[in-house]
Amino acid sequence: MTVRFSVFIPIFNDARWLPGAVESLLAQTHGEWELVIGDNVSSEDIAELVGRYPDERIVYHRWPTHVSFADNANRTIGLCRYEWLQYLSADDRLHPDCLARMAARVGDLVDVGVVPAMVLTGCQRLDERGFAAGARQHQTHRLNSIADGLYDAREWLRITAKPGAQPWNIGSLAISRDVLSVLGGYFRSEMGLAPDAEMALRVSAYGPVAYLAEPLLDYTVRDDSISSGLFYRNLAGNATNTIMGGALLSGLAVHEDRGTVSRTDHDYVTRMVAESHVGRALQHRYLPGGHGRRGALRDIRRALLISPGVFLSARQLLRALVAIVAPSSMIRRTKAYFMRRGRWF
């Protein structure tokens, strides 16, 4: 079976980073791919840069209007031709055997009559100099682990809802074109910082998920990333939903519409959404842009409305009390203490 990938890079400037992404595609041991670059009206000369790589598998398109990050991804994916669709950022670097390993997993599953909706791999987080950056990126969350294997809709829903940062990245995630046709769009722009997690959760409602635990992508943690700006905007704006809470509720609605959610699973996911509000209550106290005790109280009330039983957990009750009554200096010291020991506060 031939497995073909349409890798697409929606880009706005980032000429500094794009050559590394292109060259990581050219170095793939699996040759059945195309690279589609959708230029979101960059001020930098992306066309000239792409022209340095005379490979017929590379397609460049400059759009006439500038749109949001999510909308540029959605229109760029529409230019793709192949059966497996994979988003890549300009600062992502695929390991040489990434596509080969993903193609082999898809082929093995299809040979036994299983067609996955999505195949993805682990990743490693690096800073701009190439050094490990996991702790720097996950200052407020622990990094979860997922075992190599095949997961059904229910299992992936619970994995995604588990508190903490996921060990995968969208750059090593490919979805089936058949699923995209019924997905209702790739990214949902209203998801803000978590469109990738929400998209992957929606995809899992339409078929099994194949996960390769090996890190086959290098993901760059950048000082100028839009992610941190969106994170602090969510906190400072005291948005109704937390970043991950909004993604979980959106994905949960799709799973419920598809009939894959039991009452137990529904309660688990909504409890995790409530816990994310308790976490943001703490962030109001120790992060720049937080609203102090007033912001903490608002998020604790929201947690109660979403899942009234959330504070039956002694841990969540303690976190809520700390967010309300503890001095902010003590919260910062406690956070630092847990981080030094690789534990989650």
Task: Give the arrangement of secondary structure elements.
Blueprint: E1 5-11, H1 18-26, E2 33-39, H2 46-50, E3 58-62, H3 69-77, E4 84-87, E5 93-94, H4 98-111, E6 118-126, H5 134-137, E7 149-151, H6 153-161, E8 168-176, H7 177-183, H8 195-203, E9 209-220, H9 226-236, H10 243-258, H11 263-286, H12 292-306, H13 314-325, H14 328-340
Parallel strand pairs: 1-2, 1-4, 2-3, 6-9
Antiparallel strand pairs: 4-8, 5-9, 6-8, 7-9
Description:
- The protein has helices spanning about 20-25, 45-50, 70-75, 100-110, 135, 155-160, 175-185, 195-205, 225-235, 245-260, 265-285, 290-305, 315-325, 330-340, and strands at about 5-10, 35-40, 60, 85, 95, 120-125, 150, 170-175, 210-220.
- By secondary structure, the chain is α/β, with parallel strands linked by helices.
- The chain folds into two domains: about 5-225, Spore Coat Polysaccharide Biosynthesis Protein SpsA, Chain A; about 230-340, no CATH class.
- Strands 1, 2, 3, 4, 5, 6, 7, 8 and 9 form a nine-stranded mixed sheet that branches.
- Mean pLDDT is about 90; it is low at about 135-140.
Summarize the structure.
46% of the residues lie in helices and 17% in strands. With 345 residues, it is of the alpha/beta class. The longest helix has 24 residues, at 263-286.
